[in-house]
Task: structure prediction
Amino acid sequence: MERRFLLNDRLVELGPDERGLALAWLRQRQGLCGTKEGCGEGECGACTVLLGELSPRGVVYRAVASCLLPVGELPGRHLVTIEGLNPPTGLNPIQQQFVDEGAPQCGFCFPGMVVSLTGFFLDSADLSVNDGLAALDGNICRCTGYAAIVRAVTALAATYRPLLDPTRARVDQLAEWGILPAAFATAAARLSTLGAPPIERFDTTAPAVLFAGGTDLIVQQPDLPAAADLAYLSRRPELRVIERELDELVIGGAVTIEEFGHAPEFRALVPDAPAIVGRFGSTLIRNRATVAGNLVNASPIGDVTILLLALGAKVVLSRDGRRRTVPLSEFFLGYKQLAREPGELVAAVRVPASVAGDLVSFEKVSQRRFLDIAGVNSAARIRCRDGLLERVTLAVGGVAPVPLSASSTAAYLTGRTLDAATALAAADVLESEIAPISDVRGSAGYKRELARRVLFAHLLRVAPDRLRVEELV
Amino acid sequence: MSREDVYLHVRGESTFVDDLAAPAGQLFAAVLGSPVAHGTITRLDASGALQHSGVVRVLTAADIPGENQIGPILPDEPLLADGTVHHVGQPVAVVLAETLAAARRARRDIALEIDPLPPVLDARAAAARGQLLLPARTFALGDVDAAWSRCAQVVTGRADSGAQEHFYLETQGALAVPAENGTVVIHSSTQSPTGVQRQAARVLGVPMHAVEVDVRRLGGGFGGKEDQATPWAVICALGAALTGCAVRLVLDRRDDLVMTGKRHPYSSDFKLGLAEDGEFLAYEVVYYQNAGSAADLSPAILERSLFHATGSYAIANVRATALSCRTNLAPFTAFRGFGGPQAMFVLEAAIDAAARGMGVAARDLQRRNLLREGSVFPYGQTADECHAERCWNEADRAYDFAAIASAAAEHNRSHAGTKKGTAVMPVCFGISFTNPSLNQAGALVHVYADGSVGVATGAVEMGQGVNQKIRRIVAAALGVATARVRLDTTNTSRVANTSPTAASAGADLNGMATRLACLQIRGRLQQFAADRLGGAEPAQIGFADERVLLAGQSTPLDWPELIRSAQLARIDLSAHAHYATPRIAFDKTAEKGRPFAYHVYGTAITEVTLDCLRGTATIDAVRLVHDAGKSIDLATDRGQVEGALAQGLGWMLLEDVTWDEAGRLRQDTAGKYKVPDLGFVPPVLEVAFLEDADNPHAVLGSKGIGEPPLMYGIGAYFALRDALAAARGDLAADYTAPLTCERTLQLLAGRATGHATPNLEESPS
Ligand SMILES: Cc1cc2nc3c(=O)[nH]c(=O)nc-3n(C[C@H](O)[C@H](O)[C@H](O)COP(=O)(O)OP(=O)(O)OC[C@H]3O[C@@H](n4cnc5c(N)ncnc54)[C@H](O)[C@@H]3O)c2cc1C
Ligand code: FES
Ligand code: FES
Result:
């Protein structure tokens, strides 16, 4: 059973007693203290590391939060910390740029910033400033107000974007620029000599905790990796595919939110997908969190859940080799209660290809625009021709014990011609469908008002020429 | 030459407390906090926790050898609860175990039973019950009561500002290592090494000389580690003293959020009277400060609110009263601005109300009433070298307030879905600790035989760049390269009896002490060099660019050679110096004096856009002119302005702290408490520094910088109100901060009902 992996430039092997989370393991067992703990729940980015995985395209690196990463995920992979990015002496160009801008203040967040920006250099198609800033959407700095960080990212993009040669391997170019140490060049070869990590069994006879991105599981139960047997779904290639099958898009049960949002097959149906998904968590979270995990976590405010609900998706469940398919609208029975048997795997999510051509509108109102949970979120799939609403599906989150399919509202709108009176009447129908409660994300009254307004936002997007804000609110 | 530590930061090689290697046999601590806001402990039984493997000991109040007391101003704060609990999260017991996991797990098995008492959470409610920390204080100027009748316009109202969590990225923590003969070394993430030393000695019942506190750096402090780093450090020291093992305690984020205090919420009543022409004739204000369950630094913070009651304005008749109210919340504490922002917010609310009442632009009222040279503050000091109008005028010239406002109005005429708003925010902030005795500092400078320079001061580096400023001061005084100068850790054995690094005064005080120490060494070296250069006059000897100068001319003698030979010639190459800010005094019985060495000024203009559909706002731009004196390190000062501003914006528009009716913090995880991220801060930020503004009252003409720019953030609140007013003319006169999305939508959609917040049904529970 493979327990070896690459840690920066050396091969290490997990001892049989080594469980727990990568952050603590790095700091306490390895003495690699450049990776910091600021929150322990994926919210700050101080603990950012790169996780590299062998693929046919070479090693694919993603910036992730090590505070949510069990060491059990590591075998067969390449874990890179700030120590693994440091040149032997002096600074690499990212580090140098931060220093030149005088950016670091207390410094606590900066190792994470450097690692996240390295992730940007590895992942961004064109090294644009926007990509560079977006790569820092999960890195909180309490000292600088970000201005110097923005200046540094802008300067880096200006320097390196023109030098980018898309025909060459990115890792080689980054090594040439001094952004990556030479060790990366051999990572693929070294990883390929490792055996496959174990694929844990789970079925009725061997119940194990199904572990996808861990972005809910670890936040809810930080001791879980130390205490329980986990079945790492990321090791199952069959769960990681996104493919078109006849008139449906099939999204595997371990596909991450980031992969989902950027998959060309999904963008063909929902061109806005990257922007919509960009409102989900942060880069660090999206690189780990999965679509299926969002569904099974069953939060009434899950963003991808609401989107898929409006798209009319179905869930494929499997256990002990038996499969069944459940429409997502029938999947949520009550607060955190699912039409899913214990141990049943979400093998895939199926999205109807008929979505293509419809307008897909997503709304999320949160206190902080990025990396925050919504007060109310909503998605709508609308086909509108000359003001006639030919088809409407609507989902609203944060207004009921379950992610809500607002079917009465959708039914009300379907077949009507869109104007202010229709929109207002639909909002009244919606109000009768929802039952928000007061919590830390807002009072019930606030959510009620928001629900109306996100509906208006969808309708304004569909037919900006038929409605005016001031008629609605 | 940039800051030495930034190299380490970007390589992840700078050491914070939790990065220190574990001493052999080190134990981890986990603190059990009270689950109840107020009550009597009826049972505290640790036997369940002791059953866990790896658990070494559980500490309670009964184990304390000295005094169970860490209150810095009033003796009202036990280290571990004894008999009663006064807030949720108040430390009750401490598990010491071989692993962190064991300590945290065992903590759950301490049996703690509490007979609950009704908690008081609200400052006004506490005041009504007479729960004041100290008698109310009043600052008065002129004759307010007589002035009202002369006013053409009088506005009254209420303003409430919320708490703010520091959210330093490095949570509170310490590591205590026992040494021989009952002594202990504490590595602490504290702004106040001496504070930790004093309270540890008190709790352990040992003299202060038996406790050494060492601080390399902080991963952010912002006031949150001025007094509230102390309990954790003292708990470690107590554990080390009782077990003989090193003890490490680093709070996880949840414990830090729940157990530590935040910026004080204030609820205030204001009354502002204006003449026909807009002159502020009279201002009366009552501040109800929610102090939490113990005094902590609240009385000093309250005092600063009184000092800043009139903000940047000259008002002839003033009565400001402040009450520090004891409640059952974690003791509120220092946070950048230290009571100043809360007071300024109230006055800006009053100005906003007056402007709307009179149908004039707030900006015109603000401009008309700005402080001028010689204006008298209610506490008796006069505004000297007053730059209030200069900053305003320079900002207006650079950015054109009228043009910005009319562009917003133009947008608003043509857009129904979005509205723009603008506001100008002038800031005046006094520099010095308001407690005069704290305005002193010490420094110890060693020039080593190889010419390198080691400096120890009382200042703690927490990202504000004080070490770099001190390096520059040393380099300038000795004529050497900054690369020769290294700042040692802040250590109570090197520099004793230090003041906390706070009040924007760290570089002023410690920089001046360092300079004085350098000047002593310099004087000895002048004498020595004069002798070596064949009996020149010492006064003719200078030092620059690593060379000895004679009458301004370079000599063959360079710095390394000078030092080598001076050391061989038995010249003392070390010096300690002490600095006490001159000319400051305050008489608390009269509430008059000259508490501040000087004031910092500045003016900002903020633009926001309101999304009228979703009730969300974005901050489009902040443009400001700030008076930093003659900056010692411009990059550092710019960083301080940008960082403080972001915190101010967060305080006003984003960061919401609330408690349920049982006194439990609602935002008890990082997932629920949102600080500014990259997407929140304004995409346009222009920072200009006032030119030709040398400050005669601080080191090398500079000015303290840490706190004042935070208050520019207040402009965002009023800019958003301006946008709201563009969306609906009958905007309620509700001045509650932060102006969260929910409050914004309430104001936008709610039925305007005069003063009360139009409530969209149920409040959060
Ligand atoms: C900082 C942060 C920000 C976040 N922001 C957002 C946000 O903006 N919007 C949002 O909606 N959510 C957000 N979340 C929540 C979380 O990221 C999502 O719910 C995510 O989709 C969960 O996926 P996961 O793969 O991490 O699930 P895990 O934590 O691995 O698992 C969650 C649950 O699903 C089960 N599970 C996972 N995969 C399967 C499967 N294939 N079959 C059966 N059961 C399975 C697990 O057993 C577990 O019960 C955030 C979380 C964090 C930590
Ligand atoms: S420690 Fe904050 S994201 Fe991991
Ligand atoms: S520099 Fe302190 S948190 Fe970023």
